[in-house]
Amino acid sequence: MDTAADDTVTGGSDGARAARADGPRDRPWAAWPPRLPDRARPYLAPLLLYGVTKLTGLGVFAALLTYAGDFREKNPRFGGGAHWWDVLATWDGWWYLQVAEHGYHPSLVRLDSEGLFTVQQNSVAFFPLYPALIRMVSESTGLGLYGSGILVSVVSSFVAAAGIYAVISLLAGARAGTIAAGLWAVAPGAGVEWAVYSESLFVALAAWTCYAVMTRRWVTAGLLAFTAGLNRPTSAVLIGAVGLAALVTLARPESRREHGIRGPVYAMLVAPVGLLGYIAWVGWSTGEATAYFTLQREGWAHFFDYGAYTLDVLRNLAVGRGDYPFAFSTPDLLSLQLVLALPFLIALMLRRRPPLVLVAYTLASIITVLGTQQMFGNTMRYLLPAFPLLLAPAAALARQKLPTLAVFFTTAAVASGWYAHYVIFELGVP
């Protein structure tokens, strides 16, 4: 009897302990802080580094804007506003908000002018994905168009940082991937990542497209490249990189046997549909097949000139002159330093033998930027999507100890408030 009683008490005690131990598992709301899924945990460090670094730079930018106060005297459409944060929705941001609010009104209106601009600027120059997301978020959250634009950009920037981490960590390890995400936060031109601009959304799509190709997820790569084609015209370089990687996969018997044919072919066929479809729609809506390119060339003075404009800028800057269109001294000098660093960064990247999709995407991006007439001071922003250039610097910094990295990122974060934010929005035209 005593033994039975003891067994009953013991069993009850063990059962109570088991119930207490298993209780929180049966009630997920009772466990705090919530446990991250195993697959999400590696992204915590890079996203934390990215977020803290970006927030620091934005804080310095706000302090500089408030100290100077020049934005209060500028047109709200061109770098001005009542509050410092209004600056984040000026220039291209104004156009995106107009599309989000009013939609498109395609037209090709000729101007009585013989200068750089012979066609009236029109909102169809701005691709539809980003403003569509702004409108969708605004209607579903009530944030308003400005708040929704910032939210879309900020969320997209974290998705982009995660994609950069995923790509770089595959090639150089998790520590290098984390550092690469932090470097993207302080890259020249990074000020538009948390502004009403489409760069963060594009880099998010580009990074994960490259990752999908690297891991042979061809259907995903094709769909992401298709989506990127609805976001920016520069998606052409991403689409081309996906197509080239797919062709090489099909051309090699061993990879063709391993990965099949349908996946690469699907990616090749689907990837360009978004870009070509939108350009075709602009042509159909305006009654001129090449309307989009005409608008870019004659409305914004953006067109591929095989590097003639870039060479002209470099000659002028070398002798201290500003005798070229769209001259802005401070942004131009910073962009010049970046251009001079490109051969070194490319060589270091190639030395690490990255996959073909990264090489093709990066080199095509650089050629497109340097071969196009556009505001030279914005070269920093236009090269922001070329994230594979961060591979070698991230791998090198990964060998440094934590105190050294802390000093580096603290300094870079503070400085980025000026060179990556203030210079672009207030000393140039982003």
Question: What would your notes on this structure say?
Answer:
This protein is mainly α and 430 residues long. The chain has one domain (42-426). The chain has 19 helices and two strands.
Using brief descriptors, characterize the structure shown.
19 helices; 2 strands; two-stranded antiparallel sheet; disordered N terminus; mainly alpha; transferase; membrane; 430 residues
Beta-strand proportion: under 5%
Would you tell me the structural class of the helices and strands?
mainly alpha
Low-confidence stretches: 1-26
Order of strands side by side in the largest beta sheet?
A: 1-2
Major β-sheet, in short? Answer: 2 strands, antiparallel
Summarize the amount of helix as a percent range: 55-70%
Please sum up the structure shown.
The chain is an all-alpha fold and 430 residues long. It is 66% helix and 1% strand.
